[in-house]
Design a protein that fits this description.
The protein is mainly alpha-helical. A two-stranded antiparallel sheet has the order 1-2. A two-stranded antiparallel sheet has the order 3-4. A hairpin with a 4-residue loop joins β1 and β2. The protein is elongated, with a radius of gyration of 26 Å.
Length: about 280
């Protein structure tokens, strides 16, 4: 592209320089990086000679490569799903297991607390909390805080389901025998009761990751999640829609939305497949 200045309207004008040919080369030298994260290297699989640049999916308004930002955004969007899962699921499993196994008044009190958490509109709570965050927070700090908030909201539904399963499992003969043999209640829950819920937990885990990804993408899309210059699929999609006039000429700017759709579809398909494999009632 060639840049010129329009003094009448005080704007930059970019025109394609069709007379200049920049050949694409194999194993060209470029910016330094670490091969496998260990060895410094400057050779790239393909590229162009400096000062030219090659952007497979174009660049954003700040001249940053959209293709590279998709991968950096994937790190944020996928990591927040798995980190949220690893925080929320242990809480939900242990809390629901204890509530269902102990029963009585303790069960009623614990379930009322779960219902109080489930009654909180999660997305609106996230919007309120994200809006009051200090503007000087770094992207990493905001990312960690969003992950923690999502995790401490998402465990209540799992705890309620686990509690219902434990209520039926605790009446099994082997559980009663372990209790009669003097095994402590907590060890009995961990060793005999919770493993019987493994099938449901595995399926629920694969279906819960898309919820975390959607929540983070939604917050970033409305500008309350991960902020620029850090990349996530949500704020990349927001940046694309902020320049809606360019979408007809640059439809690849909607790639983050397509990746969100494909990722969620893959996780849902994985969850359905695991359910069909692990549920004995569906075996022919």
């Amino acid at each position: 592209m060639e840049r010129s200045f329009d003094p009448e309207y005080f704007r930059q004008i970019y025109r394609e320089a069709k007379q200049k040919v920049v050949p694409i080369q194999i194993f060209v030298k470029g910016e330094c990086y670490k091969l496998l994260g260990l060895f410094p290297c400057r050779f790239h699989l393909f590229g162009v000679q400096e000062p030219a640049r090659i952007f497979l999916l174009g660049s954003d308004i700040n001249g940053r490569d959209n293709y590279s930002r998709l991968f950096f955004g994937a790190q944020k969007s996928l990591t927040i799903g798995f980190l949220g899962l690893f925080i929320a699921f242990p809480i939900g499993i242990i809390y629901g297991g204890i509530s269902g196994f102990v029963g009585g008044v303790t069960d009623n009190i614990m379930m009322r607390f779960v219902e109080a958490i489930m009654s909180i509109p999660g997305f609106y709570l996230l919007i309120a909390l994200a809006a009051i965050l200090p503007p000087g927070m770094s992207g990493s700090e905001r990312f960690a805080l969003i992950t923690i908030i999502l995790s401490f909201i998402g465990w209540a539904g799992l705890a309620r389901v686990i509690r219902g399963m434990v209520l039926s499992i605790r009446e099994e003969e082997y559980v009663q025998a372990a209790r009669a043999a003097g095994l402590s209640e907590f060890i009995n829950i961990i060793k005999h009761v919770i493993p019987q819920t493994t099938t449901y937990i595995i399926v629920a885990a694969t279906l819960q990751v898309p919820n975390f990804i959607l929540s983070e993408s939604g917050l970033s899309f409305i500008g309350l999640g991960i902020q620029q210059p850090d990349a996530s699929w949500g704020n990349m999609l927001k940046a694309a829609l902020d320049n809606a006039a360019d979408l007809f000429n640059q439809p690849w700017l909607l790639t983050p939305g397509i990746l969100i759709f494909i990722t969620i579809l893959c996780f849902n398909t994985l969850g359905d497949t695991l359910r069909d494999i692990l549920d004995p009632r569906l075996q022919s």
